[in-house]
Amino acid sequence: MDNEKFLKIFGLNLKIERLKLGLSQEKIAESLDFSSVYVSNVESGKHKISLINAYKFAKFYKKSLDYLLTEKS
Q1: What's the CATH number of domain 3-62, 1.10.260.40, 2.60.40.10, 3.30.930.10, 2.60.40.420?
Q2: For residue 1, what pLDDT is reported?
């Protein structure tokens, strides 16, 4: 899998989880001490993300990194 596709899958899964909880990008950013622009860019697959920040998202959503990195059908 190429890097661009990987980032898009991860970002889409984050967005899906956020929407399931009915939260805004601003609320996620505030909770994780990120900027809302960063959250937006990660969700859209436009920003490379560190393993530490990926873990922070996973912990916040109570999902495994494996779950967030897996393409859903």
Answers
A1: 1.10.260.40
A2: 67
The per-residue DSSP string of 49-66 comes to --HHHHHHHHHHHT--HH
Amino acid at position 49, single letter: I
User: Could you report the per-residue pLDDT of 19-53, keeping only the tens digit for each?
Assistant: 999 999 999 999 999 999 999 999 999 999 999 99
Mean pLDDT (the chain, rounded): 95
What is the distance between the alpha carbons of residues 20 and 60, in angstroms, rounded to a whole number?
13
Contact between 10 and 51 under an 8 Å Cβ cutoff? The reply is no
